[in-house]
Amino acid sequence: MQNKIYQLFEYAYLVMAAFSLYLVATHWVDNRGRAYMFIFFAIVAVFMFFFKRKFRKMVEDRAKGQNKK
After folding, report:
1. What is the C-alpha end-to-end distance of the chain, expressed in Å?
2. Interval 18-34: pLDDT, tens
3. What is the pLDDT of residues 1-12, one digit of tens each?
4. CA 11 – CA 6 distance, rounded (Å)
5. Which run of H or E residues covers position 45?
6. How far, in Å, CA of 40 to CA of 17, rounded?
């Protein structure tokens, strides 16, 4: 159950990255400073997706190793 919740949060980071890129596209002409801020948010969200994914898989592998003992 917990792993499914963690996966949901992983994909929420991708949704936030996509929304940030949408905001970059809408603010690019009007307000470049805000667009750069959302580019930063998108990069951080993608980084967090991969970081959380790696951490979740590491925890799952550790739990599988403990169950085998």
Report:
1. 22
2. 999 999 999 999 999 99
3. 777 888 899 999
4. 9
5. helix 32-68
6. 10
59/41 Cα distance (integer angstroms): 26
CB of 41 closer than 8 Å to CB of 14: no
Place of tokens 């085998």: 68
> How far apart are alpha carbons 32 and 20 in whole angstroms?
14
Structure tokens given for 50: 């991969």
φ/ψ of 29, rounded to 5, equals -80, -40
**Angstrom distance (rounded) from CA 35 to CA 20:** 9
Q: Is 1 helix (H, G, I), strand (E, B) or coil?
A: coil
